[in-house]
Amino acid sequence: MLSQDTKFQYLWNCNEYLEKASRIILATDSDSSGQAVAEVLARRLGKERCWRVKWPKKNDAELCKDANEVLMYLGPDSLRKVVENAELYPIKGLFKFRDFVHEIDEYYYQSNREHLGVSTGWRALDGLYNVRI
Questions:
Q1: Distance between CA 119 and CA 6 in Å, rounded?
Q2: How far is CA 18 from the centre of its chain?
Q3: Which of 133, 110, 131, 112 is nearest to 120 (CA)?
Q4: Does this model's pTM top 0.70?
Q5: Is 65 in contact with 74 (CB distance < 8 Å)?
Q6: What is the chain's alpha carbon radius of gyration, rounded to the nearest angstrom?
Q7: pLDDT at residue 6, rounded to an integer
């Protein structure tokens, strides 16, 4: 699972435990360096098992950068909720149903004529079936 390099020796030290984990929550810093670490960890551990924490806002203008800021500004209950509400780590090419809800609604309610297809030539049948090119 993990390649043996010194940079990630801490992963090797926990390899036995990590192999058994079905869910790994990544709570790295929200800056670009932290996101890069999360990407490397997810790739090494298996993105399908990883979940990532989305840090909340600490005020109107700024996001918390890490767990410590959540504790300092919002308290331990907020940190617990943030970790409990971690999101699946995004996997390229894997989509969620909600990504297509708008398109499905348009098709179902026939609000976009482009999606309806071409007439069959029989009006009675067109209400039930259209040829889509």
A1: 65
A2: 21
A3: 131
A4: no
A5: no
A6: 23
A7: 76
